[in-house]
Specification:
single chain; about 425 residues; alpha/beta; Rossmann fold; 2 domains; about 35% helix
C-alpha cells in the first residue's frame, strides 16, 4: 500500500517526503485513511512512534476543510507540549499545501490574548488542552456547531478528567465525527463515549527495537545504582529518567547536577516557558539527562532519547508502554528501557512480561561499563556485551617499549683479542 494508492495528491506526497522524510504509510496510517476520509468515527491504537498523528491528519486535512472560514477540526491533547507538537506537524503540512494560517494552538500557560487574536481569524483547525478549550467555549470564541470532527489524542490520559471530556462533547453536535487515539485503549474507556466506533490497531503492542532491561537494587538505594549507571552512559546519547512522585524531581536533578551531570527536570507544575526551554535544551543536546514524571510519557516526540530509565517502578503495564515508547522512535532507531527493580517489584515484573509479551534481561554496572547478565563476584572479570549500551571504555596509557638488552661479547673472543695485542 502506498500513499498514492490511498489517494494522496502529488503535492501531499512531496510535502510528506520533504517535511518528515516519509515516503510510505505505516500500518496504522494505511488502515486509518479510508474510514476517516469517509467520515467514520474511529478508535486508533498502535505502538508509540508508529505515526498515529499523521494517521488522522492526512485523511482529514483536505483542501475543502482547509479552505473553510470557520472552525471545522478540533484536536484535544492532555498537555501543552503535545498540543504544540501536533500543531507544528499540522501547520507545516498545511503550509506546504498552500494554507499557511489554517492551524491555531490554544493551551494553558500561554498568552491567551494572542490565542484569541488567532481564533478571530476563524482557522479551520484548532488544537488545545481541555481546560483552555472549555474556557474559549465559555467566552464564545469557539463555535461548537461548526465543528465536524473531534480528535482526542492520548484519550486514556484525557479521561483522567472525565467531566471535562463530557463537557466538551456537550458543546458539539451529536453526530460529530469522533476519533480516539492512544497507544493503549481499554473497553471501559471506549464505553465512556457510547458511540459506534471502528476499532483499528497496528501490528504490535510495543516497539520490537526496544531492549528491555532490569537493574536489580535495594529499594532504599536506587539512587546509588542510578549514579554509576548514568556515568557509564555518558557519551551514549540522551537518557530519560522517570519518577512517580513530582516532589522528588527537583531533588534528584539537584543531586545529579552536583555530580557534574547535565540534568534537567520536566513536570506539569513548571511554567510553560521553563518547560519549553528544557525541551529545547534536550533537542540541542545541551541536556543529556531529562528527569520527568509521566507527563513526558504521553505523545512527546523526542527522537534523540537513547535510553529510558525507570527510577521508580511504573504503576501498571500501560504506563510502562508509554514510558518505554519514548525511545527507539523512527523507522530504524533502537533504544533501551531500564527498570531499577527492588525485590518487591519482581512479581509485578513477571506480570508485565506476560501481559506485554516482552522479556526483561538482567544487567549490571561495573567499573564504568554496562554489562548484560547477573553481576558476578568482584574477583571475576565480566565481559562487556555488544548488545548493551555503548559505554565509554577507560583509556590506558600505552606501555613503554621493552628495553633492548646489550649483547655481550663471548669470553673466548675477548681472550683471543688480548693475545693478539701481546704479540704486537
Amino acid at each position: 500500500m502506498t500513499f498514492a494508492d490511498l489517494g494522496l495528491t502529488d503535492t501531499s506526497r512531496q510535502a510528506l517526503k520533504d517535511l518528515f522524510g516519509v515516503t510510505d504509510p505505516t500500518s496504522i496510517q494505511a488502515k486509518a485513511y479510508p474510514p476517516l476520509a469517509q467520515g467514520r468515527s474511529v478508535a486508533l491504537a498502535d505502538i508509540t512512534g508508529s505515526g498515529k498523528t499523521l494517521a488522522y491528519l492526512l485523511p482529514l486535512l483536505t483542501d475543502d476543510l482547509l479552505a473553510a472560514s470557520e472552525n471545522r477540526l478540533l484536536i484535544i491533547a492532555p498537555t501543552a507540549e503535545l498540543c504544540k507538537q501536533i500543531a507544528d506537524v499540522a501547520d507545516a503540512y498545511c503550509t506546504a499545501l498552500g494554507h499557511p494560517q489554517a492551524v491555531t494552538a490554544a493551551f494553558g500557560g500561554a498568552n491567551i490574548r494572542y490565542q484569541l487574536e488567532q481564533l478571530g481569524k476563524r482557522p479551520p483547525v484548532v488544537i488545545g488542552t481541555p481546560g483552555r478549550i472549555l474556557e474559549l467555549f465559555n467566552r464564545r470564541k469557539l463555535n461548537g456547531q461548526t465543528i465536524r470532527t473531534l480528535i482526542l489524542d492520548e484519550v486514556d490520559a484525557l479521561l483522567g478528567k472525565p467531566a471535562d471530556i463530557a463537557d466538551l462533547q456537550k458543546r458539539l453536535l451529536r453526530d460529530v465525527q469522533l476519533v480516539l487515539v492512544s497507544a493503549s485503549l481499554q473497553d471501559d474507556q471506549l464505553a465512556f463515549f457510547n458511540r459506534d466506533l471502528l476499532r483499528l490497531a497496528g501490528d504490535g503492542a510495543l516497539n520490537t527495537r526496544i531492549h528491555h532491561l532490569i537493574l536489580p537494587c535495594q529499594s532504599s538505594r536506587k539512587f546509588d545504582q542510578l549514579r554509576p549507571l548514568l556515568f557509564a552512559l555518558q557519551g551514549s546519547g540522551t537518557s530519560l529518567v522517570f519518577l512517580n512522585a513530582l516532589d522528588q524531581i527537583d531533588r534528584i536533578v539537584a543531586r545529579l547536577r552536583h555530580l557534574g551531570l547535565p540534568a534537567a527536570g520536566l513536570y506539569s507544575a513548571m511554567h510553560k516557558n521553563d518547560r519549553q526551554a528544557v525541551m529545547q535544551g534536550v533537542r540541542k543536546g545541551d541536556i543529556t539527562i531529562l528527569v520527568s514524571s509521566d507527563l513526558a510519557a504521553r505523545g512527546l516526540d523526542l527522537p534523540i532519547i537513547d535510553q529510558v530509565i525507570h527510577l521508580d517502578f511504573p504503576n501498571d503495564p500501560t504506563t510502562y508502554v508509554h514510558r518505554a515508547g519514548r525511545t527507539a522512535r523512527g523507522p530504524e532507531a533502537e533504544g533501551a528501557s531500564v527498570v531499577l527493580v527492588a525485590g518487591r517489584d519482581e512479581a509485578a515484573l513477571r506480570i508485565y512480561e506476560r501481559e506485554l509479551g516482552i522479556h526483561f534481561d538482567k544487567m549490571f554496572v561495573r567499573d564504568g561499563l554496562c554489562y548484560l547478565g547477573e553481576a558476578p563476584e568482584k574477583a571475576e572479570k565480566p565481559t562487556p556485551s555488544s548488545k548493551s549500551f555503548k559505554a565509554k571504555k577507560k583509556k590506558t596509557a600505552p606501555k613503554p617499549p621493552p628495553k633492548k638488552k646489550s649483547k655481550k661479547a663471548p669470553k673466548h673472543a675477548a681472550r683471543k683479542k688480548a693475545q693478539q695485542k701481546k704479540k704486537r
